[in-house]
């Protein structure tokens, strides 16, 4: 009798409804990947194999497989929401000290915990690469990503790059003056730049330029350096900048070991040194004085004010002192056979033998890894229209198998009633 076939069909239809129901339930779960039921027929084999006249003994659920196709990406406006466009998974570390195995997820809803770590809603720590002085340090194994939320230390200014244009038509001051910052008649042009001492206090490094008498080979200018209105202690006196007849600086463009005494707000003094002042980009053309380029390192102390994550997963932190530096990079993982990953629930998967070869971890946009979109989340890849159609099909599948059992019952009853 055909009860076996009908019963197996009911079990298969029930499993299909479970899978469809789970898909529908997670249609709004970020990073969720839909599943599908895969069935196989069953035959009872005899001593000599399967007979060509054998009808089969039903169906079985061969596998419930997950489909890792890309979900739509939805903008959220939250800096710590991340979406992967393309292949790859976020690498996460379990909050449990007893578990050393990494977990993998496509759900990029992260937040900063009380210790500055980037974590998901269940406390799993996002893995990546750290940075030193703004340079990403790529290591064989990624580490916990952590924001430095405490006060960052100040850095004294060590280099100043200043490019100016000195007006070739400027009047030569005669006789050659002794520069007095309070008397504009003692110099032709002046400018200043903010520098920092080792405690993060700001000071004004000022440059006073005096034009010399032009010659057949060019013009010499002198520059006097002052910090907070006081002449630097070394090099002492004016320094010479020599320009040829084309207005190009030919010598004197780099000044080394500029020494000054820094007076802090509490009145104490500290000897300080700026390693290099580079004026080599300066020119002397028939144009008004102007600053063409300016850059100085060093910074005051500061606290974290905002973060930004670019499409390569590099995390840039902006501090209250205006400094923006790279503090880390998100790592991604991919697998030869993503279908072999084992679901852990909570939008997490773990690497098992069937994923073939283990995780291939690297930076976003390297190898076959996708790119990061910040302020966005990947939505579930469930198509509700398709799932509802599949639900109707599974229902009809169930009803048809129930009807086959009912028919078999009717036939059996007819046989019992024979006399």
UniProtKB/TrEMBL annotation:
Return the InterPro entries for the record.
Answer: Falgellar_hook_FlgE_sf, Flag_bb_rod_N, Flagellar_basal_body_rod_CS, Flagellar_FlgE/F/G, Flg_bb/hook_C_dom, FlgE/F/G-like, FlgE_D2, LlgE_F_G-like_D1
- Output the Gene Ontology cellular-component terms: bacterial-type flagellum basal body; bacterial-type flagellum hook; cytosol
Where is this chain's protein located in or outside the cell? Answer: Bacterial flagellum basal body
Where is this chain primarily localised?
other
Which Pfam families does the entry link to? Answer: Flg_bb_rod (PF00460), Flg_bbr_C (PF06429), FlgE_D2 (PF07559), LlgE_F_G_D1 (PF22692)
Residue intervals of the Flagellar hook protein FlgE/F/G-like D1 domain: 83-142
Query: Which keywords appear in this protein's UniProt record, sorted alphabetically?
Result: Bacterial flagellum, Cell projection, Cilium, Flagellum
- Domain Flagellar hook protein FlgE D2, which positions? 165-298
**What Gene Ontology terms for biological process does this UniProt record contain?**
bacterial-type flagellum-dependent swarming motility
UniProt domain Flagellar basal body rod protein N-terminal: residue ranges:
6-33
Keyword Mitochondrion carried by entry: no
Where in the numbering of this chain does the Flagellar basal-body/hook protein C-terminal domain appear? 373-418
- Which intervals of the chain form a coiled coil? none
UniProt similarity note: Belongs to the flagella basal body rod proteins family.
What this protein is reported to do is described as: A flexible structure which links the flagellar filament to the drive apparatus in the basal body.
Annotated protein name in UniProt: Flagellar hook protein FlgE
Tell me which species this is from: Pseudogulbenkiania subflava DSM 22618
């Amino acid at each position: 009798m055909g009860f076996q076939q009908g019963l197996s069909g009911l079990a298969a239809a029930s499993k299909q409804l479970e899978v469809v129901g789970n898909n529908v339930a997670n249609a709004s779960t970020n990073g969720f990947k839909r599943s599908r039921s895969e069935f196989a027929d069953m035959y009872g084999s005899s001593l000599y194999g399967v007979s060509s006249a054998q009808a089969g003994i039903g169906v079985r659920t061969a596998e419930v497989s997950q489909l890792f196709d890309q979900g739509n990406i939805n903008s959220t406006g939250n800096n710590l929401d991340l979406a992967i466009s393309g292949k790859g998974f976020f690498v996460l570390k379990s909050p449990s000290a007893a578990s050393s195995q990494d977990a993998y997820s496509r759900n990029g809803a992260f937040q900063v915990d009380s210790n500055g770590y980037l974590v998901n809603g269940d406390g799993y720590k996002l893995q990546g690469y750290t940075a030193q002085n703004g340079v990403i340090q790529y290591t064989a194994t990624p580490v916990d990503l952590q924001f430095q939320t405490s006060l960052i230390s100040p850095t004294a200014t060590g280099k100043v790059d200043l490019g100016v244009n000195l007006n070739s038509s400027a009047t030569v001051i005669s006789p050659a003056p002794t520069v007095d910052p309070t008397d504009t008649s003692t110099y032709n042009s002046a400018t200043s730049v903010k520098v920092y001492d080792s405690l993060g206090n700001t000071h004004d490094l000022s440059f006073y330029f005096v034009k010399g008498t032009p010659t057949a080979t060019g013009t010499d200018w002198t520059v006097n350096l002052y910090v907070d209105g006081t002449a630097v202690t070394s090099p002492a006196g004016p320094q010479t900048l020599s320009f040829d007849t084309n207005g190009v600086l030919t010598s004197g463009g780099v000044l080394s070991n500029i020494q000054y005494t820094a007076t802090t707000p509490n009145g104490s003094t500290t000897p300080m040194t700026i390693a290099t002042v580079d004026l080599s980009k300066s020119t002397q053309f028939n144009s008004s004085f102007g600053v063409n380029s300016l850059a100085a390192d060093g910074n005051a102390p500061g606290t974290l004010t905002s973060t930004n994550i670019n499409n390569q997963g590099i995390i840039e932190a902006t501090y209250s002192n205006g400094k923006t530096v790279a503090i880390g990079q998100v790592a991604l993982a991919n697998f030869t056979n993503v279908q072999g990953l084992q679901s852990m629930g909570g939008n997490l998967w773990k690497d098992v033998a069937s994923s073939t070869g283990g995780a291939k971890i690297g930076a976003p946009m390297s190898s076959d890894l996708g790119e990061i979109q910040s302020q966005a989340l990947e939505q579930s890849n469930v198509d509700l229209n398709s799932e509802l159609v599949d639900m109707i099909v599974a229902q009809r599948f169930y009803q048809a198998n129930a009807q086959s059992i009912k028919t078999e019952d009717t036939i059996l009853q007819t046989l019992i009633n024979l006399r």
